[in-house]
Amino acid sequence: MPPTTVRAAAVQIAPDLASRAGTVERVLNAIAEAAGKGAELIVFPETFVPWYPYFSFVLPPMLQGPEHLRLYEEAVTVPSAETRAVAEAARKRGAVIVLGVNERDHGSLYNTQLIFDADGSLKLKRRKITPTYHERMIWGQGDGAGLTVVETAVGRMGALACWEHYNPLARYALMAQHEEIHASHFPGSLVGPIFGEQIEVTMRHHALESGCFVVNATGWLSEEQIASIHPDPALQRGLRDGCMTCIITPEGRHVVPPLTGGEGILIGDLDMRLIAKRKRMMDAVGHYARPELLHLVQDARPAQPLRRILPEPAPDLPMFSESEASDA
C-alpha cells in the first residue's frame, strides 16, 4: 500500500572542487544526516558529483581545456565504485536517493540524473536532453528514453534537470505517466538573484500543472570556491546567488520555507492525499485534457550512434550435386 506521508529532504551543500572522492564523501554524510532526521527521499543538486562545471560560465572556450579535461578525469561512470557507494547508502538507510552526476561514457560527458530506490537498486539513469547555453561545450545530449516515470518506495517519481523545465513537452511526458513526486535540481551559485526567482516560479508552476509534489535541490559555492574558479570580481558576480532549494505541494505552496543561501538540508513531510485533492479540480492529463485535439508523441527509444545489420548466415551447401547424389 503506498505511503500517505513521505518525509523528503532537499540538500543544498557545496561540492569538493578538488576531487570526486571528496564530493562523494559529502554526499554520503548528507544522506546520513537527512536519514537521521527521518528522510525517506533525499535529492541532491545538479551534476553534484564531482561538481557542476561552473568554469564554463565564466571562461572563454579557448581557456576551458584544462578544466574540461579535469572534469573528464573526475567524472563517474555508471556503474562505478561511487554509484555503488550511494546505492549501499540508500539500502542501508532505506531511502530513495536522487543524485546528479557528470557521467563519462567513453569520449563524452553527460548531465545525468540517477534515482536509487530504498533497496539500493538503480531505478533510473537519464541524461539531460538539451544542455543549456554554456553547457553545450561540456555535455552531450540525452534521449527520450530518460523521460520515464519509475515506481519507487515513496511513489511514482520523475526527474528533470534545470532548464528542461522550460520544455513543456518534456514535462508533459512525465505528467502523462502520472508522476506523484517530481525530483529536480539546478546548479545554484549561478547567474544571480533572478535565477532563484525564476526557479521558484518554475517549480511552483510544475507542481500546480502536474498535480504532484516537487522536491528541488540547488548547489552552493563558498566565497573561497568562487575565487578559485575565476579571480575577476566582475565575473565572480555570475557565480553567486541563484539558489532556490525548495519542497512544493501540488497546490503550489512551499512545505517549508525555501533555502536561498548557504548550506543546509530542507526537511518536509509530503501529504500524498493532496495529489487527489488537486487533481479532483484539474487533472491536466486526465479529465482536463483534450487528447483528440492535442496529444504528445514521445520517441522513447534509446539513441544509438551505430545500428549494425549483420548478414544472414550462408545456408549449408550440400556435399554433392543432385545428379551426383542420384548416381551414388
UniProtKB/TrEMBL annotation:
Domain CN hydrolase: 6-272
GO molecular function, one term: nitrilase activity
Pfam families with a match to the protein in the record: CN_hydrolase
CDD domains in alphabetical order: nitrilases_CHs (cd07564)
Region (Disordered): 309-328
Similarity-based family: Belongs to the carbon-nitrogen hydrolase superfamily. Nitrilase family.
Entries under NCBIfam families matching the protein: nitrile_sll0784
Protein name per Swiss-Prot or TrEMBL: Nit6803 family nitriliase
Species whose genome carries this gene: Paracoccus lichenicola
